[in-house]
């Protein structure tokens, strides 16, 4: 975990905590929103930096921003969990019937 992205670690922790009180559909929607924020670089370029370091350059030395857990603010984490107000972003649509019954 010491080499993992500090921002991603805090997002993951908050997502797990929120998931304890949410249903399956809410959890899928939250994960979709987080993924959209990461790909849109809403808070940082870390997704692309990690991809560069691990997959393309293969130097395994990503330069995370922020570089330490204590530098990741609650506001940064919360921003990655907010709904995205963009009419070009396709909303995640889940069927109305129970998803859990398929699992």
Helix proportion of residues, in percent? 40-55%
Largest sheet: none
Total helices: the number is 4
User: H/E order of the elements?
Assistant: HHHH
The first-to-last residue Cα distance is: 29 Å
Tally of strands: 0
| Overall radius of gyration | 15 Å
Q: State mean pLDDT (0 to 100 scale).
A: 89
Shape verdict: globular
Roughly what fraction of the amino acids lie in strands?
Answer: under 5%
Q: Which regions are unreliable across 5 or more consecutive residues at pLDDT < 50?
A: none
Class inferred from helices and paired strands: mainly alpha
Count of folded domains: 1
Oligomeric state, counting identical vs distinct chains: single chain
Keywords:
mainly alpha, 4 helices, 103 residues
Structural overview:
It is a single chain. By secondary structure, the protein is mainly alpha-helical. The protein has one domain (6-83). The chain is built from 4 helices and no strands. It is globular and about 45 Å long.
Describe the secondary structure blueprint for this structure.
Blueprint lengths: L5 H14 L4 H17 L5 H11 L17 H6 L24
Helix pairs in contact: 1-2
Compact overview of the structure:
The protein is mainly α. Helices cover 47% and strands 0% of the residues.
